[in-house]
Fold this protein.
Amino acid sequence: MKTIILRTASDYLLPLLLLFSIFILLRGHYLPGGGFVGGLIASIAFVLHAFANGLENTKTLLRLHPGYLMPLGLLVAALAGLSPIFIENLPFMTGIWFQEPLPVIGMIGSALFFDIGVYLVVIGVSLTIIFTITESA
Amino acid sequence: MIQHIVLYPIIVQLLLAILLLFSWNSVKIQKYISAGGSIISLLVAIGLMITVWNEGTLTIQAGGWKAPFGITFVADAFAATMVLLTAISGIAVSFFTVGTILKARLKFGFLPVLHFLFLGLNGAFLTGDIFNLYVWFEIIIISSFVLITLGGEKKQIEGAVKYFTLNIFASIIFLTAIAVLYGLTGSLNMADLALKIAALENRGLVEVTAILFLIGFGIKAAIFPLYFWLPASYHTPPPAVSAVFGGLLTKVGVYALIRVFTLIFVGDAFLENIILVLAGFTMVAGALGALAQNNIAKVFSYLIICHIGYMILGLGLYTEAAIAGAIFYIIHDIVVKTNLFMVSGLIYRIKGTYSMRDLGGIYAKYPLLSLLMIVPLFSLVGIPPFSGFWPKLSLITESFKIDNYWLIAALLFGTFITLFVVARIWAEVFWKKGKKIPEIQNFRYFHLLKIEKKIEIIGPIVFLAIISLYIGFGAENIQQLAMRVGEELMNNENYIQAVLGK
Amino acid sequence: MEFLLAILIGLLYASGLYMMLRRSLVKLIIGLILLGNGANLLIFLLGRITKGKPPIIPEESYNFLDAYADPVPQALILTAIVISFGLQSFAIVLIKRAYKVVKTDDLDQMNSTDEFS
């Protein structure tokens, strides 16, 4: 689909959607949102870009194959889950939090890092699935 | 906290799988990580077993949420035994994989997925939450789908379609059962469920739920009449994959059946009768199927079904000794079945075929290897003092106690057919004079392999053969373990108390 | 609401099973998807439906003032949906591959693994 409207729109939409996905990711702990939805939005941004500009261009934009986001995200999430064992000798996956909230982001704790891991895995998985199906079709 | 060790088998496999995914491009590094990681996970599993043996049932509440609300992980003697067995057959399979699987398959992530499968197995054994069990089951089946289809040969894809459909169907039935259970009790923690189900008035609805669980797990465990997917699919992937599937995957179904029917749905005569009848039919049907086949991998597939019947029989008899017999049988069966599929892989490497008509003359060519391969075959039949003998003995004595001669007849029938089939394999594959069969082009025959490759193939078989010899000759130790598991399973108050802390 | 949902769930299970029994591969997958959706709705229904009462404690109090919706079934459904998302994408790739390799989508033709050899 090489229409000029979609291509121009996708240039603006890509950064906007990515920013929005990060917003959704960060508000996720107490409000609707979170890593899963945020990851889906981010991957939709790239899919839209691929629709407008072709798969090859999106791949050069991404530089790294999205498959690598899967182990990275899994590692982040696993370490977030493991952190209470090493830091405070609490059970696996217990939420531990910093005392003071950070400006803009808010409270930071292991749950946030777990969500970031989920975010990365979701981007990696959905982009890998979509890219693979598109390529083999 | 000493309870952290409950989660270590899961964490080790998770980190291993992540590491393997990171080294996607280099098969060589993957091989070393997989081999080293399998050894570490064996050590962790031994550590867990020793801790559970000394300290009793261990629990940990993930996320620090108190028992019926959060997800609990429980390591009782049964779970620890299963984790140890997973690690033992995992180490063998991981080495065997490196020796036999084609490089093209390894390049597409065979080893990471294999370790995700072990992650799912360890999780399923250690969890104390019924929905979490569902999630681990999904991890297991998704990884097994990848393993069964990787390579994409025609027969593999055909087998995979059947395997895929029936396993997803089983999962949906399992999910339906969880939905009904949650509607009945409002709880998902298995210990809490045990208390709440026992207090329910509406026994009819409880029984329906129990039957749903029986069907869902029954498809996964391949009991009669739900087993037809197994012989259609288990012989299609490479032997290393068949070895994991045959050794461990059906046993997860059996594990779930035993766990659910000794903890949640207890003391129901109707259910016990159904399970006994199904066990009898499973033994007979599997044995008859094995009798009819010529392909050795298919023969072994049917023997899996036949021997699932023995474990279900132990559950159906529902006495301490019978359950101990079933546990002993599981211990023996995981080691021996894994080894059998590896043996079938070795036979395939030597001759290039699975068909008993074309095979033959292996004893004349490789006398020592043949003696090695006969160890798992004899253990399978249970010729004393090999490992299969002792659990069958206790199952038969327990069947005599309830005067159910049909069951004893079915059990003996299954055993005799197994003996006959093993004798037939020995005669046809090893003893008979070898036929001249046309050589396959570019096939890596066993005698063409380098010595390191040969060791990679034979080593795991020797390792598991030694373990199964130990199970046979050191039977009193295994029996002691099985008796303890049986005692813990029959008295579910211990489990409930360990989880809920009342 | 409960009554309508019960009928809908029954329809989903029935049509899912019917589709699974057809001979086409695509219909098999559609059947599995319908069955999965039926199971998800069943969890939702059996978790008791409470309208418009989120399980959130108001800021000025320390416990719930009113009956509230159970959040657990929703978490379960979300998990099940994510899992079935993965399974379905795998299934679609698998049937595509099966169609390429076996050159038919008729399940009755896929019986070479059951033959005696």
User: Anything to note?
Assistant: Helices of chain C lie at 2-20, 25-46, 71-102. The domain at 2-54+68-107 of chain C is CATH 1.10.287.3510 (Helix Hairpins). Chain C has one domain: 2-54+68-107. The radius of gyration of chain C is 20 Å.
